[in-house]
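Quick one, probably user error.
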């Protein structure tokens, strides 16, 4: 069975039905550079959901097929009625959230609480599938990890205002660049924090991949931190180069 072709046909079919995500795109594969096995491959679906191979693969082609298989299973599972956000689904999800956080069910009607904000987000996305809803959730997970949500709360923005504002945006290069700049600032305040966070992100990504889980949150963390580190390194190289040029100029002047 050519699982790579089946996955492609599945999403092409959804595109023809106009049942794809707002951020339409193709199925994209990415292989990690490696001199030898085990090889790692990621596949990103339209909408941004990311999956990887969870088996030890002896070739890049095998890793790609294994990643496609995980993505196909999740794509098909997402089509089931139980994966679409309905009133019943929302009630059950809120119930689970309350029990897992030892919260109060009354909080579901108060958007200023975590449970209430989650309830509000679900209600705002009624009719969508869980993979579609997850695209929005990833943004808020990253904003929470990045410290941006805390900063917004300190400016007295309500949770509803924050949700309404960021619900209009997709996770793109511009948003990643803004988050990378935030981490560059954190690095200036606490030298070494970028490398520490990147090691954590890489470990989480590896563990989630081997468990067959959805990977986008961990992969986005890695991309943002890597972008921040590359920017710092680039600035250091540029600064060093400018110092060298200045030294040569002064030497020539003398």
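Nope, works fine. Designed sequence:
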């Amino acid at each position: 069975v050519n699982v790579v072709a089946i996955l492609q046909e599945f999403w092409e079919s959804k595109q023809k039905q106009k049942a794809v995500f707002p951020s339409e795109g193709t199925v994209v594969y990415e292989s990690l550079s490696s001199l030898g096995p085990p090889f790692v491959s990621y596949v990103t679906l339209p909408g941004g959901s990311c999956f990887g191979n969870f088996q030890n693969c002896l070739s890049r082609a095998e890793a790609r097929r294994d990643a496609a298989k995980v993505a196909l299973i999740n794509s098909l599972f997402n089509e089931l009625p139980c994966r679409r956000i309905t009133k019943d689904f929302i009630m059950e999800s809120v119930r689970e959230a309350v029990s897992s956080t030892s919260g109060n069910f009354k909080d579901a009607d108060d958007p200023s609480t975590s449970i209430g904000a989650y309830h509000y987000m679900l209600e705002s996305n009624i009719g969508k599938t869980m993979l579609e809803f997850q695209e929005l959730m990833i943004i808020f997970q990253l904003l929470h990890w990045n410290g941006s949500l805390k900063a917004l709360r300190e400016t007295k923005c309500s949770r509803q205002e924050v949700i309404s504002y960021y619900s209009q945006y997709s996770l793109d290069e511009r948003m990643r660049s803004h988050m990378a700049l935030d981490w560059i600032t954190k690095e200036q305040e606490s030298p070494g924090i970028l490398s520490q966070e990147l090691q954590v992100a890489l470990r989480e990504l590896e563990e989630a991949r081997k468990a067959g889980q959805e990977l986008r949150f961990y992969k986005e963390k890695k991309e943002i931190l890597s972008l921040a580190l590359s920017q710092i390194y680039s600035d250091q190289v540029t600064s060093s180069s400018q110092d060298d040029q200045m030294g040569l100029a002064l030497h020539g002047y003398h």
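Residues 3-79 form a domain with the Double Stranded RNA Binding Domain fold (CATH 3.30.160.20).
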